[in-house]
Amino acid sequence: MPSLKDLRNRIASVKATQKITKAMQMVAAAKLRRAQMQAEAARPYAERMAKVLGNVAAGVQIGPETPKLLSGTGKTDTHLLLVCTAERGLCGAFNSSIARLARDTANRLLAEGKTVKIVCVGRKGYDILRRTHGKLILELIELRSVKVLGFENAEEIGKKVLNLYAEGGFDVATLFYSRFRSVIQQIPTAQRLIPTEIPQVEEAGSGAIYEYEPSEQEILEKLLPRNVSVQIFSALLENGASEQGARMSAMDSATRNAGEMIKKQTLTYNRTRQAQITKELIEIISGAEAL
Amino acid sequence: MASFPFELVSPERIIFSGEVETVVIPASEGEMTLLADHAPMMTSLKTGFLVVGSGKGEERILVQGGFVDVGPKGATVLAERAMPVSEVTGDILAREISRAETEHETVEDPVLKAEAADTVAQLREAKARLGL
């Protein structure tokens, strides 16, 4: 039976925790708004890029002349998994669901006899994957020091991936991140990065004959690596919004749980206190009667 | 003068969007001016000033690399880096110049090296022209 003092202390500590989770929730809500705005601002560029790429690629025949980024290496032996997660925890199942998707994919590929290489962006995914697939991880790219995610960050990662591809380090690259649907729903997604998936052009009138300057080939060669960075950038932005959304809902339920715990313990505290008073009264009364 | 819809987007945001009459773009093969009803065209950009002219006057934007897509319905510029001249400061330019210089020194490929050298020259010129 805990004493009254113990109960009091426990309630105080749960209350302190509740204050922290409440504050974290509010911080996450503010950050979420910013992250969403950033993701929204970056969307037009990605959309236009996909359109332009679709237009250009539609007019190009796949042949030995086509850049490797579009046609692939002709093999699918070595896979690179680019796993983007958060730098911080306490955001529900956000990190673990991305890591689980990556791990399942890696296991499936390994079972098929392929070689798998992993590059982690974000500390948390690395921490989870290290336990099971530590030997496959090539590199950990940390973005902890980055306050506001800029295109440069994505470009840097893109460059590393492209260099590895140019060296023949892998045949297929897949990007893992979490798509932001709503505050309570984030969808872990795997997206093929290399060879480039050509977006379908739907727009009417896109059949117009384009003039290219310099040649179509050269433009395509410039567009494709750029597209890799753009995709990484939008994945990181989506991830940023998803992380804050996940943290917000995780902290919301933590706050609620703390509230319930406080209620329950306050009840126990009051009962214990009353029981003690009753006990003392009985002692006094029976003492008086005995006289 | 006839106008046409024009958009300038960088990876981080839309920098310009609206009806314009002329756009001067620093294309990789030389500067060119776009007018309304231009034939569909794709071209890449080098570092330089992009000048947007509308009825109200003109706006200059410093762009570094990217692509121009001129379609039947207007023009879109996808810039790698872009900044309205009013936001450019000496510090930013100095940082960009040093970045381009390090790229020039580290890159091995002769084509890319020439491109980086061009970027450095263009940025220096931009700096001189803005008097920063």
Can you tell me about this structure?
The complex is a heterodimer of chains A (291) and B (132). In chain A, 62% of the residues lie in helices and 15% in strands. Chain A is an alpha/beta fold and 291 residues long. Chain A is elongated. The relative contact order of chain A is 0.19. The mean pLDDT of chain A is 88. By secondary structure, chain B is of the alpha+beta class. Chain B has two domains: 4-85, F0F1 ATP synthase delta/epsilon subunit, N-terminal (ATP Synthase, domain 1); 88-130. Helices cover 29% and strands 47% of the residues of chain B. Chain B has helices at residues 90-106, 110-130, and strands at residues 4-9, 14-20, 22-27, 30-34, 41-45, 48-54, 57-71, 74-84. Chain B is globular. The A-B interface holds A 38, 41-42, 44-45, 48-49, 51-52, 55-56, 150-151, 154, 205-206, 208-214, 216, 218-219, 222-223, 226, 230, 233 and B 7, 9-14, 27-29, 39-44, 67, 69, 71-73, 76, 78, 80-81. β6 of chain A pairs parallel with β5 of chain B.
Element layout with pairings:
The complex is a heterodimer of chains A (291) and B (132).
Chain A: H1 4-58, H2 68-71, E1 78-84, H3 94-111, E2 115-121, H4 123-133, E3 137-141, H5 151-166, E4 172-182, E5 185-194, E6 211-213, H6 216-290
Parallel strand pairs in A: 1-2, 1-4, 2-3
Antiparallel strand pairs in A: 4-5
Chain B: E1 4-9, E2 14-20, E3 22-27, E4 30-34, E5 41-45, E6 48-54, E7 57-71, E8 74-84, H1 90-106, H2 110-130
Parallel strand pairs in B: 1-8
Antiparallel strand pairs in B: 1-2, 3-4, 3-6, 5-7, 6-7, 7-8
Biggest sheet descriptor of chain B: 8 strands, mixed
- The residue fraction in helices of chain A comes out at 55-70%
Percent helix among the residues of chain B? 25-40%
Tell me the strand order in the biggest sheet of chain A: 3-2-1-4-5
Are there runs of chain A of 5+ residues with pLDDT below 50, and where?
none
Low-confidence blocks of residues of chain B: none
The first-level CATH class of chain A is given as Alpha Beta
- Which structural class do the helices and strands of chain A define? alpha/beta
CATH topology of the largest domain in chain B: ATP Synthase, domain 1
CATH superfamily of the largest domain in chain B: F0F1 ATP synthase delta/epsilon subunit, N-terminal
For the termini of chain A, the CA-CA separation is: 32 Å
The total count of strands of chain B amounts to 8
User: Architecture of chain A in CATH?
Assistant: 3-Layer(aba) Sandwich
**What fraction of the residues of chain B are assigned to beta strands by DSSP?**
over 45%
- Could you tell me the number of beta strands of chain A? 6
Radius of gyration of chain A: 28 Å
